[in-house]
């Protein structure tokens, strides 16, 4: 069976690192993001046999159309990685309802919708694997990130439930929960201060998260797991 993996949020950061690692392992990648040019640059750099698609995961119709396009050009999707997310950090009292909704729609509902779309072909093929990107903040909470945290905590319940729902179809659903990783999402943070609280004493690299994602995609007897990749941050908070 050919290995076709759709990576939502695959154009930059952690998703891009996952795409690079999986390309080396012989997967055919669909690199998906809103900015098509950026996704195309990533896909071209992966080499031949990989394609870029533009899709906003907060729009169900976009997701439906994207899966149709992917299946037409690359074949059935049997692996799915959900790395598309946004954050609008701020204290709850200062958070606007539209910023609450956009985070929940993109991070939580977007992932639910891509999983639903991918499952159709995975069920047909009697097999597949999904990895959803959560966050240590979804497990431990963080001041100023209550909505982002809720979106990621929601993914834990969703992923564990879905893991139970589709296990008999030989489809596995797992999560990784990163701490601070060097990407655009963390570029504005005060790293020197924050890394003092990390037992391993540094931020992580996208390639380090990618290894965990690949492990969960490829390990046949693991489902419903949340793998923390945070340099030990969870031990202290
Ligand atoms: N970096 C960290 O420290 C950290 C820690 C914990 C968890 N995470 C999680 O890890 C995942 C990847 O994070 P990252 O740091 O790599 O983020 P990033 O560098 O900001 O990249 C986000 C990716 O998601 C895409 N994206 C954003 N909104 C989208 C939408 N509505 N529809 C489709 N694609 C969308 C972006 O492309 P476009 O903008 O072109 O759409 C980009 O490819 C996220 O789930 C994040 O919450 C990250």
Automatic annotation (TrEMBL):
Domain of life (superkingdom): Eukaryota
Cross-referenced SMART domains: PKS_KR (SM00822)
Pfam families named among the record's database cross-references: adh_short_C2
Domain Ketoreductase stretches: 3-184
Keywords assigned: Fatty acid biosynthesis, Fatty acid metabolism, Lipid biosynthesis, Lipid metabolism, Oxidoreductase
InterPro entries: KR_dom, NAD(P)-bd_dom_sf, Sc_DH/Rdtase_CS, SDR_fam
Pathway in which the depicted protein is active: Lipid metabolism; fatty acid biosynthesis
Family of the protein in this entry: Belongs to the short-chain dehydrogenases/reductases (SDR) family.
PANTHER family noted in UniProt: 3-OXOACYL-[ACYL-CARRIER-PROTEIN] REDUCTASE, SHORT-CHAIN DEHYDROGENASES/REDUCTASES FAMILY MEMBER
Protein's name in the database: 3-ketoacyl-[acyl-carrier-protein] reductase beta subunit
Organism: Pogona vitticeps
